[in-house]
Design goal:
four-stranded parallel β-sheet; Rossmann fold; single chain; alpha/beta; 4 strands
């Protein structure tokens, strides 16, 4: 089953999928790409307010096909913890869906770059090393 995960400790308040993913004014304010990702094919949004809640949801539902990451979470952890955990889970045989995509909606520029770099680099590595891929 395809589903979307939105990770943000304030997803019940000022930040939620309708604002961060689809609102162009908010995206401009946060220096996010102005092209709004089309997430309609990825099913319903499920909200996680902490890293632990995000990993628990993934354990219950399987890997999401789209994730919108905040960086700084209110539980003292950050979403790069979730990104690392997802990469390890993929390497252990619970793969990202073929249509997996993500964005980082955090206002923390260093955190945003770290999450984006980790996930992009892993997905690029995985693609280059897939059976039948050319070096």
């Amino acid at each position: 089953m395809s589903w979307k995960l939105f990770i943000d400790d304030d997803c019940d308040g000022a930040r939620n999928p309708a604002i961060t993913v689809e609102d162009r004014a908010w995206r401009a304010l946060m220096n996010l790409p102005m092209s709004v990702p089309d997430t309609s094919a990825h099913g319903e949004w499920v909200l996680a307010r902490s890293a632990d809640e995000a990993t628990s949801l993934i354990e219950q539902r399987g890997m999401p096909s789209f994730v919108s990451f905040d960086h700084d979470l209110g539980d003292g952890k950050d979403a790069i913890t979730v990104a690392h955990w997802m990469v390890e889970r993929d390497m252990d045989g619970d793969p990202f869906p073929e249509d997996f995509d993500f964005e980082v909606h955090s206002g923390n520029p260093v955190g945003r770059a770290n999450i984006r770099g980790l996930v992009d680099n892993y997905l690029d590595f995985k693609k280059r090393n897939a059976p039948g891929s050319r070096p």
